[in-house]
Specification:
The protein is of the alpha+beta class. It has 8 helices and 13 strands. Strands 1, 2, 3, 4, 5, 6, 7, 12 and 13 form a 9-stranded mixed beta sheet that branches. Strand 12 and strand 13 form a beta hairpin. The termini are far apart. The chain binds aspartic acid.
């Protein structure tokens, strides 16, 4: 008997972080679940119609970037100098082609620029003004940098500046909170890693991964995180898995976290979940790395581990009801 083909599958995340249950209102909880649900439904439909994993992750991240609830695209966090610098990457598991941009502040949808690097240049990673000129030349939508700003993110930066580097110190003393839009999110926005990402398996058995971020509040200008680095925050290979990470980028870079999961599967024969759990629960915490990731393999297995209190996440198989969650 031939094994039945796995159902096409999309999984998404909207960042991991520290939970602040006392700030959760039923309305906010509902808003996050509704946003995740509608994005899953759109990507699920694309897969049901025979669309590719690459198109499904691109669509999901497009929608996540446009949603101000998440720190990517509009609603991105501020650097120390009160500017925005966005990073994004995409990878096609069938061909191992990849594209990424880093430190862009005028491209409305950084993930589209990353995909253009993959499909329309001979490079993998373009940064800063060079990446912006490339995107503009190709006719991608450009915006003024203040398009990405929101009052809630400005308030977050103000608090971060007053506590120096509180945003990276998740075990440090709690910040004094002020009532603002950011405070009412289910995950404490000052301790949430706000990257968004998607992984998918399509009807042809192909995998893809995409990740996009505003980075971390109060980051130094010029800092690049794990998101646009192939193998660190984003990776896809049909033979193993598609992975999109969120968390303290520097640790994900030093552990080459996304690729490490694929290597544990390829060389060690581990299952997707065993490999992902090892990296998120053992390897990263051992060096202070906090966050989580979403991962899918070509057999349709799914793993969504995180070592923080919560991670905005969801998944949908074709023909099944989308599932979303924030906390454990
Ligand atoms: N990993 C991202 C970075 O370091 C941050 C995040 O996940 O929110 O830029």
């Amino acid at each position: 008997m031939t094994p039945s083909k796995p159902l096409p599958l999309i999984a998404i995340h909207g960042g991991a972080g520290t939970m602040s249950r006392n700030h959760i209102s039923a309305e906010q909880d509902t808003a996050y679940h509704a946003a995740l649900q509608s994005i899953l439904l759109a990507a699920q439909q694309l897969l049901a119609d025979g669309g590719s994993a690459l198109d499904a992750v691109s669509l999901a991240v497009d929608l996540l970037e446009d949603c101000p609830l998440f720190n990517a695209g509009h609603g991105s966090v501020f650097t120390h100098d009160e500017t925005h610098e966005l990073d994004a990457a995409v990878m096609d598991g069938a061909t191992l082609r990849a594209g990424a941009v880093a430190c862009v502040s005028r491209v409305r949808r950084p993930l589209r620029a990353a995909r253009a690097v993959m499909e329309r240049s001979e490079h993998v990673l373009l940064v800063g003004p060079g990446a912006e000129a490339f995107a503009e030349r190709l006719g991608l939508e450009m915006v003024s940098p203040d398009y990405f700003s929101t009052d809630a993110r400005r308030e977050q930066l103000r608090r971060a500046l007053s506590t120096d580097k509180a945003l990276l110190d998740h075990d440090g003393a709690a910040l004094v909170f002020h009532q603002s839009a950011a405070d009412t999110a289910p995950l404490d926005e000052d301790r949430k890693f706000g990257t968004v990402g998607a992984v998918a398996l399509d009807a042809h058995g192909n995998l893809a991964a995409a990740t996009s971020t505003g980075g971390m509040t109060n980051k130094q200008v010029g800092r690049v995180g794990d998101t646009p680095l192939i193998g660190a925050g984003t990776y896809a290979d049909n033979r193993t898995a598609a992975i999109s990470c969120t968390g303290t980028g520097e640790m994900f870079m030093r552990t080459v976290a996304a690729y490490d999961i694929c290597a544990r599967m390829a060389y060690g024969g581990l299952s997707l979940d065993a490999a992902a759990q090892q990296v998120v629960m053992d390897v990263l915490p051992a060096m202070g790395g906090r966050g989580g990731l979403i991962a899918v393999d070509a057999q349709g297995n799914l793993s969504l581990p995180f070592n923080t209190e919560g991670m905005y996440r969801g998944h949908a198989r074709v023909g099944e009801v989308p599932q979303t969650a924030i906390f454990r």
